[in-house]
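Recall the central idea of this unit: under ordinary conditions, the amino acid sequence of a chain determines the structure it adopts. In this exercise we apply that idea directly, starting from the sequence alone.
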Amino acid sequence: MPTAREALLDAAHAALAGLPWSAVRMVDVAAAAGVSRQTLYNEFGSKEGMARALVRREADAYLQGVDRVLASPAPPRRNLAAVAEWTVSEAFTRPVLRALLTGCWGERLPAPRPARAGARASAVPAQRRADAGVPSPADLLGLARDRAATALRGDGEGDVRRSCEVVLRLALSYVVAPAPVVASPFLGPPVLGPSGGAEGRRTDGQWAEPESWSPMTPTMTSVIDTIFNVDTTSPRKIIP
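Accordingly, the structure predicted from this sequence is:
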């Protein structure tokens, strides 16, 4: 049985499937979760507080997913490829995660405003953590990279941490690269380029959903082998 807080976050997330954040009403979220509006305010303090909590939960869920994939009994490098593929596939289906990973927020899904300086701290520990701020794309990638590097620590020689970051940055390129447009009620109409073709970025600042993630495992595995076999002692080696 989910807690009132989880039920409220689930209801807010569900509302975003069909409405821009500006049209999501607290009273409707509370009703969908089966709790009072006062309970909602006790948990989050405000609509912005709920937005911060929603984004914080999505970041935590992503990192927990990274841990699950890395814990697979498969060879460590194959797990790293799996993390890359899983990251792209999850970003395809989860708009909040996609915005977190890319920093591409928009009118339908704006970046939550930080808690007001000097505001009284929430009595709810989970909300205090959310109000402390959501991770930037670089922060989130860094946390995933460190988890991957720890899992691969004994897998050969070289700068494992740097190699893991390269792999994850490559995965993010699949998330943000322009792709054929798929109709989506959440993201709205595509942006048309000068030639009349659909470009990757949409009018709301989001990127089109990548259609090419599913066959990326062979490519990613090959790239990972190249990355880990490269001479990491050269001072000219940099992260792209």
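The chain has one domain: 45-229.
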